[in-house]
Amino acid sequence: MGKGTGAQAGLRRRNMALVMKALAAGENVTRAAVAAEVGLTRATVSTLVDELLAAGLVEEQGAQRPGTVGRPGTVLALSETGPAGIGAEIGVDHLAACAVDLHGRVRARAQRPAANRSRPAEAVLAELADLTAGVVAEAAAAGLHPVRTTVAVPGLIGQDRGTVLRAPNLGWEDVPLAAAFGEAAAVENEANLGALAELWLGGHDGRLTDFVHVSAEIGIGAALVVEGRLFRGARGFAGELGHVPVRPEGPRCSCGANGCLETYAGEEALLRAAGVRTGRGPALKAAAVAGDPAALRALEEAGAALGIALSGAVNLLDPQAVVVGGPLADLAPWLLPGVRRELAARVTDRQWRAQDVLVSRLGHDGVLRGAAYSSVRTVLDDPATWIRTVTEPSLPPTGSTSCSSR
């Protein structure tokens, strides 16, 4: 391929991605609207849209609705069939999988309880593969075809995005997880995927681009989104908020240090302090709703500890907001007063407001949906390569194992 030909192909690839993202971001969108949005000629946009239509990535939905200026155009939208992203999640006490379409809508989902702590990784992965296969089959019946699978794990992930280096709450070390799901698979830390789900699917319409996302089950995880991109750190381990010391004289943590946030606000610490022995998170919430003094006291102390840890992150990073997600969101009414009080007392920016602590709308599915959508976004980010992969099957699968794209 000549130099000029290669440059032309690269330009076409970038332009097609621009068109695809414009279609993904808008409603009642026409070719003319896309051309105005991305700064390309109508002829160029029309040619690219025709290719996307032929590939099944875009569909026409009829004439533009009345009330628009000028001659109505044909409305375009991302296809509801075709490429799908598969997400799989390994929790300490559950396994889950789902499929999402190009819109990020969940089209198939399955979950089952599983006691995964200290369970052999091979057994966990075999059960997860079985669960995922059922989701893939259900998605296929709806006309969806998996692009890749992303697996969410509560642990440190290697830079190859395929190996779990250490997952203390599972008892795992150096597990080559992606290999169990085939070539087109990636592994990602669950907290990172929760933050990416918030960025992409949290209903902020692109307005929230700098934030700290915090969630918890057995442990506490956080992730940092800076200028619309996931911040990983030099070795990929940024966000270990659970092991920030909040009271150095406090109890010993599983990491070997004393007084870490996890010893006050992790699920096991909360349940122990509240005197809840069965039912875990839902039982703790029920006790709080009922006004149980021990539960309320435990949640108050946990909220204060969380606020102390988050104040350091806010002072260091100056984010737009802190987002509380995952199971922590269920406990927000009792946690957030302590969080907000500590932030108000400790954050140096006096413009910081209580409203800057948000509760995610995604609930418990944030991590799983983030995993699935990160898989299908490889098509949104680079549709030309995906089309080429489909038409030339000998090419490697589209996308990379990084989930840090905007």
Attribute tags:
3 domains; 41% helix; 13 helices; alpha/beta; disordered C terminus; Nucleotidyltransferase, domain 5; Arc Repressor Mutant, subunit A; 15 strands
Describe the structure.
This protein has a five-stranded mixed sheet. Strands 13-12-11-14-15 form a five-stranded mixed sheet, with helices on both faces. The protein has a three-stranded antiparallel sheet with strand order 7-8-9, with no helix packed on it. Strand 8 and strand 9 form a beta hairpin. It contains 13 helices and 15 strands. Helix 1 packs across helix 2 and helix 2 packs across helix 3. The chain has three domains: 76 residues, Arc Repressor Mutant, subunit A (Orthogonal Bundle), CATH 1.10.10; 140 residues, Nucleotidyltransferase, domain 5 (2-Layer Sandwich); 156 residues, 2-Layer Sandwich (Nucleotidyltransferase, domain 5). The C terminus is likely disordered. It is an alpha/beta fold and 406 residues long. GO terms for molecular function: DNA-binding transcription factor activity; kinase activity. It holds the Pfam family MarR_2. Belongs to the ROK (NagC/XylR) family. Keywords: Kinase, Transferase. InterPro entries: ATPase_NBD, HTH_MarR-typ, ROK, WH-like_DNA-bd_sf, WH_DNA-bd_sf.
